[in-house]
Amino acid sequence: MELFAIRPEIRFGPDALAALEELAGRRVLIVTDEFLARKSGLLEGVKERLKSCEISVFDQVKPDPSLRLVAQGVHALRAFGPDIVLAFGGGSPMDCAKAMRHFAGGNPPPELWCIPTTAGTGSEVTSFAVLTDADAGVKYPLVDDALLPDCAVLDASLLAGVPPAVTADTGMDVLTHAAEGCVARKATPFSDAMGEKAFSIAWRSLSHAHAGDNAAKGEMLLASCLAGISFNAAGLGICHALAHALGGRYHIPHGRLNAMLLPHVIAFNSADKGAADKYARLSGLCGLAKNPRALIGGVKRLRAGLGMPEKLTACGVEGQTLLADLDSIAQAALADVCAPGNPRPATQEDLKAILKELM
């Protein structure tokens, strides 16, 4: 028997932030980063909706939240004792807030509400949280249903000021989530429906969002959420496993790494007929020829149009450095929680061959 369930509740559409008015009178801990809290002006709009709430702000979140940062956040959460933990930001604040609530304990724990300000991770609807051991240079994806938020609020107006480079990085993450979710071992017709819709929306919207079209940014926000629902049910694969390993080592934005890896992972997985058929369907949904090769070419053209690199050298990683690190990166990727979901089994040598394509 298989199971497919959708959680959390999702509030979206015009003025979605109005949902926060339901929290009137409650104790709210906002988890965010310094830019959103003190420079963007966006947090004030959130606070205005939290009428008569007692509010505390934990604004220490950095990209790729570390285990040490989460420990600081757990201390802040326990000291304040909130009814609601409100994650406000991109994947890093949401993942940090999830881990803070999880490790702080409590019976019952505070509710977790997530408000994404980028269109990429889908963390607002997943049981995933990615943390970094800064000392070891390793990213650890946590997967537990206890990490699922209670409510996601999708307000497209929050994405208006997102710069093009961030839109590109996060948008390619959406496409990768959707593509990997569709071919993952636990994929079902239900998760496929979400993943295919996410992929087709992102495919037609990302270039426009990158050019500054706010309506397209709103479409990307929906695509990100749909892709999150898909991969949360189906799993991911070696593209994300390798991106986690590379990101922990070289501190390159996650979506940028996925953009480099995705064409090579599609080529590798297409040796599996089931995966090849699904890639062909995705390609057709995007108006391309219905075969994996056409999808690979389309992804490369989209990446180039967004001004994104195809090699690690463009991100400051020299070929000799990568060669020296190949074994440890491939081993970390094989140990990653995402790797078993890949439709085609991959060996350490297989992963090293993919990594060499990035030199």
From TrEMBL:
CDD domains: PDD. Residues 9-155 form the Alcohol dehydrogenase iron-type/glycerol dehydrogenase GldA domain. This is Alcohol dehydrogenase, iron-dependent. InterPro entries: ADH_Fe/GldA, ADH_Fe_C, ADH_Fe_CS, Alcohol_dehydrogenase_Fe. Keywords: Oxidoreductase. Signal peptide: none annotated. Pfam families: ADH_Fe_C (PF25137), Fe-ADH (PF00465). Its EC number is 1.1.1.1. It comes from Pseudoflavonifractor capillosus ATCC 29799. The lineage of its organism: Bacteria, Bacillati, Bacillota, Clostridia, Eubacteriales. GO terms for molecular function: alcohol dehydrogenase (NAD+) activity; metal ion binding. Residues 167-358 form the Fe-containing alcohol dehydrogenase-like C-terminal domain. PANTHER family: ALCOHOL DEHYDROGENASE, HYDROXYACID-OXOACID TRANSHYDROGENASE, MITOCHONDRIAL.
